[in-house]
Amino acid sequence: MTNWNGTIIGPPHSNHENRIYSLSITCDAQYPEKPPKVKFVSKVNLPCVDSQGNVIAAEFDTLKNWKRSYSMETVLLELRKSMASPNNKKLTQPPEGSTYED
């Protein structure tokens, strides 16, 4: 189980509300000792996501401070919390349904 598909439903009272975000999660041979690689398929504007949709581990605490006990659910829930944070919930978002190119 190396490649996972994840889904985040945008948190209420934010610019993400009523949006469904798709993500791909890749676990290499070092997982669960090392964090997975997380990439948004759906375009999103968040400080911890680069221009190709990759979640930047150094800018996302859950990946930066990875613990073996964390799960895929932990990653998705923490990303959703990040979307709802006061600094991020009003960020302008790309058009709904747009995706990153491979």
From TrEMBL:
GO terms for molecular function: ubiquitin conjugating enzyme activity. SMART domains: UBCc. GO terms for biological process: DNA damage tolerance; free ubiquitin chain polymerization; protein polyubiquitination; protein targeting to vacuolar membrane. One of its GO terms (cellular component) is nucleus. PROSITE patterns: UBC_2 (PS50127). Residues 83-102 are annotated as: Disordered. It holds the Pfam family UQ_con. Residues 1-102 form the UBC core domain. It comes from the Eukaryota. This is Ubiquitin-conjugating enzyme variant MMS2. It comes from Lodderomyces elongisporus (strain ATCC 11503 / CBS 2605 / JCM 1781 / NBRC 1676 / NRRL YB-4239) (Yeast).
